[in-house]
């Protein structure tokens, strides 16, 4: 099936290429205005002026001509200077983006050719420069572009990258990294648009091979990692789009949110109303090999089927939407923690959002109803549950506020929210803050408890938390802030275990501070916090945690240095044992010889010890890379480079008298080839 898709895409590209064979020519149109003055009108001036000595226009847009239509995917933009200027002061902007660094600038002209495809439509060119007499000169031009005579938009943008690594030196220990590796990727984006219809195809094809086995889901050889085929129609208030491949579903919190799966998605939009249909796999897959048909299966055993609709009213100030999902889950897919037994269910969600007062008061109301069977092999059947959420917030200058109530039933389950929903919880949160020019203050609070149905086999845990945070920017080079958090948690309705009732409770007080120093390329930030935990339950496990952190950084053109040092001390009062954990990291990136030579170094170090010598270990990892770009010696779009990459790791456990070292130096050959047609 994938061969059929590739053949179809190739045919479309060949047709579009034929239609665009004459894409290099430009069709231009211009308007000329003439101004005439009669002799009678000229004699009415009290002081006649010689208009023949007017200052000349400092700029001339050579290509494309001003107010013209050009047929070109990447039209060359050339502006001539008609007066002496300082080329070092040129600022060139295309559609609001600064492209001066990518343009060829001289004292006579500015030439810029886009590296990427320029979208069809109207474009604005702005140029700013200082004349040789110090006067500031500026001009704005406009032109219109399209990609072909038949198609308004038609292009295929591709990036081919390939990296080969081979170990030239390595330690005698058992290697944890492959001795050689080949990794090649082709990223392709194709789009064709003509009037109401559009076609798009995006994909990433990868070839991977190495001396060591690969971790699943990666596999050796070539594979289509992901793809998406889009077909669209838009006319007046009507829009229709169909997507096949790797899609993302976003509906409501209690139904589908950030659901990235392989399947099909259909969107129908008319004015402010929309309807969406989707059918995706419940498991996460990668590539096309051994993943079954590229077309979705209409089965709720291992697919998620859904329908959603909504409408926006009063200039998008009110939005109402409803969604329904039904499906099942089998084994876990790639990178997703999934069930070990077959599950099946459905969920319905309704949401109403309002913003009637210009961000001063926004509201969100949502409800969800689920029927879910955690094991289709048993005879228990589905369990019904509900979830509700109400939120209000806004901004009343200089203050902001937010209040939310949420209740998620003890058996509520949704198939489509990959962020995860914690069930059997009732939560109330509140936040308010005030922000002024150099000061800000935020106050937040939360109450949460579980075991909503008071299951006699579990306790109910209740948590309260409040936070106060203050920031000060009065001293520009020394911004600082402080924060305090108070949290309490306790259990109730504990089950009776043979006459023994165990209670849990904890009171935590945390205070922290932060300060930074900024002076040009140098930035230093420091943070510290102290947390005291008092166990109010039967365990009486009190502790204190102190944390110190320092992060200096330095950044100039061609050099970037970032470091971090952190010490955490955990003192267990019950055992009178203190555990110290120290971590540090460093990252240095530099460019030399007009950005052709790159030298990068990175490292991390960690050490853990305690006062009774039952923990004493440390480890160090370091990476380095010296690379050189061969582009100046290679004509065309090919961008080859050569590099030496070094790795080193060391682990020592003094208590068990074990040490491990692993070091290697790799030769790296890489190339990047962008091509557009």
Describe the fold and architecture.
By secondary structure, the protein is mainly beta. It is 3% helix and 60% strand. The chain has helices spanning 2-19, 39-42; strands spanning 59-63, 69-71, 77-81, 85-94, 97-98, 104-105, 109-112, 121-131, 136-146, 153-170, 180-194, 197-210, 221-235, 238-249, 256-257, 259-270, 273-281, 303-313, 318-329, 343-355, 362-373, 383-396, 399-408, 416-417, 425-435, 439-450, 460-472, 480-492, 505-519, 522-535, 543-556, 559-572, 577-592, 597-610, 616-629, 639-653, 658-676. It has a 26-stranded antiparallel beta barrel. A hairpin with a 2-residue loop joins strand 22 and strand 23 (399-408).
Write the layout of secondary structure elements.
Elements: H1 2-19, H2 39-42, E1 59-63, E2 69-71, E3 77-81, E4 85-94, E5 97-98, E6 104-105, E7 109-112, E8 121-131, E9 136-146, E10 153-170, E11 180-194, E12 197-210, E13 221-235, E14 238-249, E15 256-257, E16 259-270, E17 273-281, E18 303-313, E19 318-329, E20 343-355, E21 362-373, E22 383-396, E23 399-408, E24 416-417, E25 425-435, E26 439-450, E27 460-472, E28 480-492, E29 505-519, E30 522-535, E31 543-556, E32 559-572, E33 577-592, E34 597-610, E35 616-629, E36 639-653, E37 658-676
Parallel strand pairs: 2-9, 15-24
Antiparallel strand pairs: 1-3, 3-7, 4-5, 4-8, 6-7, 8-9, 10-11, 10-37, 11-12, 12-13, 13-14, 14-16, 16-17, 17-18, 18-19, 19-20, 20-21, 21-22, 22-23, 23-25, 25-26, 26-27, 27-28, 28-29, 29-30, 30-31, 31-32, 32-33, 33-34, 34-35, 35-36, 36-37
